[in-house]
């Protein structure tokens, strides 16, 4: 016999865990289901650290979500006594002359500054000399523009997911892990979720399954999603002290007009993997399914990352990789999120495609969706799956 719930959340990564937590806080009868045991390294919500910032150059719709997410993480820190958010500062660097293209938008630093002004976010605009003096690890060219946000920094994704799941359980959520969902169907006025172990009936279903969403939901909402393989690298530094989190920020650095002419990085954080962590956006290496991901990272991939982005930009960061890992994320054609009905069946909502800039918003998105399901908020039309067919 099927177990009955108000809402079922499929996938318990960044977005799914936050939605489950926010619904449980509101006394909604909710069940969360995941193929693995989150937090895990099989999806798109791992890697030890993620950048967080409040002024979002990808669009003004995102800043309120990022600001609210930081507040939620602070609240969770008090509830769990776990460090989730490190405000080491964030720098956006443009040495492209303003022609950079990041997440589908040009002029990333200028747009970030505009967002900071619009939402009254404390920030500074630094010249190259100021940036080099403060952060000797950044070899910023003298014609660069630098945005600095002292309230930015990083979050610890595995800790954030774990904290939200534990608090969701404390508020009454049921969590089933190690279960593969095989079908979502309509039956007698509700949704029926079938796994290899159980059946669940729910009034509403949230599919936050990341790269598995295409397997669960066929149709226009998922047809244009691409799964992009990404690599993360931790390189050895000759002077690691200048990259310590007490004196070095997270950063995003655009240095050309191509969509892959940028990279991002993190300070050294005590207790995490040693080395300076850096990565870039890679758009050419697609995969058909998460299980097809090539997880082994070659030495040549690390060498290309260092030569194409790190060399001449990060002081004393050698080409010796201490660690490299591969992951993936879902990408929409316009790099905006998808949040809305997955099909004509309004009982099923797709929450997907963070397009490489999602984790910093996830806690706020979870709250927004919970409020929406409780009839207290609307999902912005900009996130509608209908736009995938050119409809806003």
- CATH architecture annotation name of the largest domain: 2-Layer Sandwich
Number of helical stretches of at least 4 residues: 9
What is the count of β-strands? 22
User: What is the SS-derived class?
Assistant: alpha+beta
Q: Write down the overall mean pLDDT.
A: 94
Estimate the strand proportion.
25-35%
- The total tally of domains equals 2
Summarize the biggest pleated sheet.
9 strands, mixed
Q: CATH superfamily membership of the largest domain, which one?
A: D-Amino Acid Oxidase, subunit A, domain 2
Stretches where pLDDT falls below 50 for ≥5 residues?
A: none
Distance between the termini: 41 Å
């Amino acid at each position: 016999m099927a177990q009955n719930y108000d809402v079922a959340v499929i996938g318990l990564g960044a977005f799914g865990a936050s939605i489950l937590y926010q619904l449980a806080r509101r006394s909604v009868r909710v069940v969360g289901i995941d193929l693995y045991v989150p937090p895990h390294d099989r999806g798109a919500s791992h890697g030890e650290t993620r950048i967080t910032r409040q002024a979002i150059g990808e669009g003004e719709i995102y800043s309120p979500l990022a600001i609210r997410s930081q507040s939620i993480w602070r609240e969770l820190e008090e509830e769990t006594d776990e460090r989730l958010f490190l405000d080491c500062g964030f720098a956006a660097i443009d040495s492209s002359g303003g022609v950079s293209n990041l997440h589908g938008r040009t002029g990333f630093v200028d747009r970030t500054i505009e967002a900071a002004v619009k939402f009254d976010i404390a920030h500074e605009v630094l010249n190259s000399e100021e940036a080099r003096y403060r952060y000797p690890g950044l070899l910023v060219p003298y014609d660069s523009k630098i945005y600095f946000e002292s309230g930015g920094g990083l979050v610890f994704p595995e800790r954030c997911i774990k904290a939200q799941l534990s608090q969701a359980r404390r508020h009454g959520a049921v969590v089933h892990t190690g279960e593969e969902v095989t079908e979502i169907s309509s039956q007698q006025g509700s949704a029926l979720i079938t796994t290899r172990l159980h059946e669940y009936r729910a009034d509403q279903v949230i599919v936050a399954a990341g790269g598995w969403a295409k397997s669960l939901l066929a149709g226009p909402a998922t047809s244009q999603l691409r799964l992009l393989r990404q690599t993360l690298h931790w390189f050895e530094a000759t002077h690691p002290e200048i990259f310590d989190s007490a004196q070095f920020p997270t950063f995003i650095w655009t240095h050309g007009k191509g969509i892959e002419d940028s990279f991002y990085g993190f300070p050294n954080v005590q207790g995490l993997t040693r080395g300076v962590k850096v990565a870039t956006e890679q758009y050419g290496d697609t995969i058909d399914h998460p299980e097809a991901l090539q997880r082994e990272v070659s030495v040549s991939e690390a060498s290309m990352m260092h030569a194409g982005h790190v060399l001449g930009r990060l002081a004393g960061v050698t080409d010796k990789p201490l660690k490299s890992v591969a992951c993936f994320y879902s990408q929409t054609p316009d790099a905006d999120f998808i949040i809305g009905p997955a099909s004509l069946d309004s009982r099923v909502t797709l929450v997907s495609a963070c397009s490489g800039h999602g984790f910093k918003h996830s806690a706020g998105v979870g709250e927004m969706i919970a409020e929406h399901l409780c009839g207290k908020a609307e999902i912005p039309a900009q996130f509608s799956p209908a736009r995938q067919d050119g409809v806003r």
